[in-house]
Design brief:
Layout: E1 71-73, E2 79-81, E3 138-145, H1 154-167, E4 174-181, H2 192-206, E5 210-211, H3 222-230, E6 234-237, H4 246-251, E7 256-258, H5 263-277, E8 304-309, H6 320-327, E9 334-338, H7 348-356, E10 361-365, H8 368-380, E11 386-389, H9 406-409, E12 412-416, H10 428-436, H11 448-465, H12 471-480, E13 511-521, E14 529-534, E15 540-541
């Protein structure tokens, strides 16, 4: 066994003091409906989550040479040719091929367009305990959650695990889920020792091969993931951290895997988006109302600023990729660095700095709570700039700004690396949960979506690694696998292109453009207004593809 007898000394920490904290479900609370104004979806059964039985049979020795479908969306929003990645072959099991208990749809393991390639059935000797947390029969996986959740999510999460155990090839093993409540007595000011204490439980108590994403700790969750990497446990990182670059993940290889987009990739793409679609164009969305002691007449041209907020452990994301790309079009933004404000009063001075500098357009590199406080503080100062938000720590959700003043939220725009949300009944997580356990009650929101996506990434690596599962074979498998990605960035789902064939450690690469509409019904809570609205229904662009045109904001339906 690789290191199955290894133990570590648990750090000193609190007892089991559980407190309120945002969970991974916050990443995915909004669900945006598709409407009839979209292009009609392909009439192919494999694209329908409800049509789980209408699938195509894969050949016995299916290779993972699918690649994407040979097209991507270019600057005009229309498909243009793109280069296929070099295909690689799926792992060859040590036993003879056997028929699967189910067929593979369209060359993919499951119906979800972000599925890995199909792997045929297998039987033979899997090598037994090949790594810490792996036995001949089990792959132990920890799943922390916060007390923000109403009730225990374990039944829904176990239903998802049932689905992956049934539909993926794990070579005689099955995932055993170890759920637990994350320890923290102050979500707004998390203690590093608490995160280390929870990580030590994963190592010593659960003896897990991997952990799913840790609950939201305002960008400081890297403390949890780093502890696990130092103890040779794989992490599926659920949202951005202040240090979440691919270079940082590489320093902890082969253990840290990011379900979203690396923050350095997010920032450089956002810089190019701003240069091509915002720079040099008249101010259109700010105001009305500018502090009269600064502006004697309303501004007409854009001046840019960056609100850079440090994580609660004092670390700050490196915004060099953003500034470097803005420099290419002559933008020299005013940068204001601030600690995470606890309320609108604490946010007053940073906002006042932008007012005095006559900034009309603020690029907010901040977590969701801080962003809300900045908007509220701006309103108290009768300052209504354009706000450019992104995926960084949840600023692209339907409920992100539902509690803020509409005079501010009507000026919120940005890009989102998250997948476009679908109605619950059309969502892949819902279909998987229903198949995994039809008796499980549907949760009141899209909570399981983050867990589903974490498990999809984890299951993909386990399957493609083959019978000899270790953190290194897991990493090698993800880097060589070419995910099929059918119709990525286009109708009917506008899902992001995923994969690690670029040699990185982050799953997502492209983004859609959005505006926020506070008059729309929130898809998480119908009694609460506010929704992310996708430009061109959610067409996605990667770095280098952003069109040189002003986005048609607020000109189509919010779906």
């Amino acid at each position: 066994m690789a290191d199955g007898n290894r133990r570590s000394s648990r750090p000193r920490g609190p007892g089991y003091v559980f407190s309120a904290g945002a969970t991974a479900l916050l990443l995915m609370l909004g669900i945006v409906a598709l409407n009839a104004s979209q292009p009609p979806p392909p009439t192919v059964a494999e694209f329908a989550p409800a049509a789980l039985d209408q699938i195509k049979k894969a050949p016995d020795r299916q290779s993972s040479d699918i690649g994407d479908d040979g097209v991507k969306v270019g600057a005009t929003g229309q498909p243009t040719p793109t280069k296929r990645p070099t295909p690689t072959v799926a792992p060859t099991p040590s036993g003879p091929p056997v028929p699967r208990s189910h067929d593979c749809p369209g060359g993919r393991q499951i119906e979800d367009p972000q599925s890995p390639p199909c792997v045929p059935g297998w039987k033979g000797d899997n090598g037994g305990a090949t790594a810490f947390g792996v036995t001949r029969d089990e792959i132990r996986v920890s799943a922390p959650y916060g007390t923000f959740l109403t009730g225990d999510p374990s039944p829904q999460w176990q239903a998802l695990v049932n689905f992956f155990n049934r539909r993926f090839e794990f070579y005689g093993r099955h995932i055993v889920l170890k759920t637990y409540v994350a320890t923290d007595d102050n979500f707004a000011n998390p203690d590093a020792s608490h995160m280390q204490f929870d990580a030590s439980k994963v190592v010593e108590d659960h003896k897990s091969f991997a952990s799913l994403g840790y609950p939201d700790r305002k960008g400081s969750e890297h403390i949890y993931y780093d502890y696990l990497a130092n103890h040779h446990v794989v992490s599926i990182i659920g949202r951005e951290t202040s240090r979440g670059t691919d270079a940082y993940f590489a320093k902890h290889k082969p253990y840290q895997w990011n379900r979203g987009a690396a923050v350095d990739h997010q920032f450089k793409s956002e810089g190019q988006f701003i240069c091509r679609e915002w720079a040099g164009r008249p101010l259109r969305y700010g105001g009305p109302g500018w502090p009269p002691n600064v502006w004697t007449t309303p501004p007409t041209q854009r001046t840019f600023g960056i609100m850079l907020t440090s994580a609660t452990d004092g670390t700050t994301p490196d915004i060099t990729p953003l500034k470097d790309n803005l420099k290419l079009c002559g933008i020299k933004p005013v940068v204001v660095t601030a600690t995470d404000p606890k309320d609108a009063t604490e946010a007053r001075n940073p906002i006042a700095s932008f007012v005095s500098a006559k900034v009309t357009t603020i690029i907010c590199i901040c977590d969701l709570g801080a962003a809300r406080n900045y908007l509220d503080s701006a309103e108290t100062q009768t300052y209504r700039p354009e706000w450019l938000m992104g995926t960084y720590i949840n600023n692209d959700l339907d409920n992100s700004f539902s509690t803020n003043q509409p005079q501010q939220t009507r000026n919120v725009f940005g890009i989102s690396f998250s997948d476009k949300f679908l109605p619950v009944q059309d969502s892949w997580w819902y279909a998987a949960m229903r198949e995994g356990d039809p008796s499980v009650a549907t949760p009141p929101n899209a909570g399981p979506i983050a867990t589903y996506e974490n498990l999809l990434l984890l299951a993909s690596g386990i399957q493609m690694a083959g019978p000899h599962l270790t953190p290194q074979t897991f990493a090698d498998a993800l880097h060589r696998t070419v995910f099929p990605n059918p119709r990525a960035g286009r109708a009917p789902y506008y899902q992001g292109r995923v994969g690690f064939d670029d040699g990185g450690y982050s799953w997502h690469h492209d983004a859609s453009t959005f505006w926020y509409d506070s008059s729309q019904t929130n898809t998480d809570d119908p009694t609460t207004p506010g929704r992310i609205c996708h430009v061109r229904h959610g067409v996605r662009y990667d770095y280098g593809d952003w069109p040189k045109e002003e986005p048609p904001y607020k000109t189509t339906s919010c779906t």
